[in-house]
Design goal:
This protein is of the alpha/beta class. It has helices at residues 2-10, 12-23, 27-44, 47-50, 86-97, 112-123, 138-146, 159-171, 194-206, 226-237, 257-272, 308-311, 327-336, 350-359, 395-401; strands at residues 54-60, 63-71, 74-78, 101-105, 131-133, 150-156, 175-179, 184-188, 216-222, 276-279, 298-301, 318-324, 339-340, 342-346, 364-367, 383-384, 387-388, 403-411. α2 crosses α3, α7 (138-146) packs parallel to α8 and α9 (194-206) packs across α10 (226-237). The two termini are 45 Å apart.
Length: 431
């Protein structure tokens, strides 16, 4: 892992160019994609200390008990298109340092980064057959779910695919960690720092063209939202939409024409349901890339919980604005949503922040932090409809996912002879 870390740093630009060419995100964002994955590789370098077992001596006369963590065997990862480097690096470095072999299935839309990472792993000295890459779509996914040799599956992607994989693989007795869709909210209190909050909302709402499972796609303003919304529109209008390879690009395209059509349909559904379209990015044309799948920053105001654009994960550069009269009402709005990946509050009040932290139902919580994805010595803790499984990604939970506990009880003492056989349940008082 130490060598792999070094090689990823060496080829950071190569990986970023591959990601931008296939996926469309800006080069700067692609480098961030690689770097966040690299953090997990760094974490995996110290994986031995996280696999330590427990030992208790002389639990009864002459008897010791201890537990050890052992690998599962063959594990697999099924990856989405939006983070072609980070998500594979969430998976195989942890799995292989826990002693498993790994089958990696990248998205068919942008498999290049996974291939580069596999080559770097071989260059780093990973033995042949430890990391394997397979390509395909539904048939390959189902084969992974059904294969008796595969003991555990990691998945990141949509709810439809995630629940199919979770149900099918679990029915075969496999462990599954399935990180799925989201509708992440940011609550803005009247006392929030204006500039910092506006910048955070714009960056978290429109970065990567909104194609992040932790994108902050919904803002709940406590009190009158008008001034906040006016400033949001001004700042969003300054963002440059262009091909990701262009140096001035803030947003690249969405992944496909089908994705663009879906984003535009959900925007239109919001308008037809009564939302106010403060900024419309549907008809943007990028010179030189007229056929590109571009959607510009879009802001809808007056959104309510019954609207389709609110219920569905849009996965595009669309920011929904809602209003609440109190913090309590805002928290209730967030908690009624079926998803639970992340939520944030923007405030200068410690009392409000504490209440939010305690009452909010989300896996990752940000206090003046718009995208609260933890560093890998903590775990990525999505909840509710955003996660299926018992053990989350990386951190201690990740180690537990890729290992199983074996508990050993040993006895070393002279046993009295001639006492006969006892069929009674042994206890710590009499063994």
């Amino acid at each position: 892992m130490l060598k792999l870390q070094e090689l990823i740093r060496r080829d950071m630009d190569k990986l970023a160019i591959s990601i931008t060419t296939e996926q469309g995100k800006t080069l700067k964002d692609a480098q961030g994609d690689v770097f966040r994955g690299l953090e997990v590789v760094e974490h995996a370098c110290g994986m031995a200390s996280l696999q330590l077992g427990e030992f208790a001596s002389n639990v009864s006369h002459g008897i010791d008990t201890y537990s050890i963590r052992e690998p599962l065997g063959v594990c697999a990862g099924i990856c989405p298109f939006n983070f072609p480097a980070m998500i594979p690096l969430w998976m195989f470095p942890v799995a292989v340092t826990c002693g498993n072999t790994f089958v990696l299935k990248p998205s068919e839309k942008d498999p290049g980064a996974s291939m580069i990472l596999a080559e770097l792993a071989m260059e780093a000295g990973l033995p042949s057959g430890v990391l394997n890459v397979v390509h395909g779509t539904h048939d390959i996914v189902n084969a992974i779910c059904d294969d008796e040799d595969v003991k555990a599956i990691s998945f990141v992607g949509s709810n439809t695919a995630g629940m199919h994989i979770y149900s099918r693989a679990s029915a075969k007795g496999k462990r599954v960690q399935s990180n799925m869709g989201a509708k992440n909210h940011g609550i803005v209190m009247p006392d929030a720092s204006t500039d910092a909050t506006l910048n955070a909302l714009v960056a978290a709402g429109f970065g990567a063209a909104g194609q992040r499972c932790m994108a902050l796609s919904t803002v709940v303003f406590v009190g009158d939202p008008k001034e906040w919304e006016n400033e949001l529109v001004k700042r969003a209008k300054t963002l440059k939409v262009n091909a990701g390879t262009e140096p001035d690009a803030d947003l690249g395209p969405v992944i496909s024409k089908q994705a663009k059509d879906r984003v535009c349909r959900l925007i239109q559904s919001g308008v037809e349901s009564g939302a106010r379209l403060l900024l419309d990015g549907r008809d943007i044309v990028v010179p030189g890339y007229e056929q590109g799948n571009f959607v510009g920053p879009t802001i809808l105001s007056g959104v309510t919980e019954d609207m389709e654009c609110y219920k569905e994960e849009i996965f595009g550069p669309v920011l929904l604005c809602m209003q609440a009269d109190s913090l309590e009402e805002a928290i209730n709005i967030v908690n009624r949503n079926k998803y639970g990946n992340g939520a944030a509050i923007f405030t200068s009040s410690g009392v409000a922040a504490r209440k939010f932290q305690t009452d909010i139902e989300a896996g990752q919580v940000g206090i003046n932090v718009p995208i609260p994805v933890p560093l890998p010595f903590f775990s990525f803790t999505g909840s509710k409809a955003s996660f299926a499984g018992d053990l989350n990604f990386y951190g201690k939970a990740g180690v537990n996912f890729y290992t199983q506990i074996k508990t050993v009880t040993q006895q070393w003492k002279d046993l009295p002879g001639g006492s006969g056989v006892s069929l009674a349940m042994p206890t710590s008082q009499k063994c």
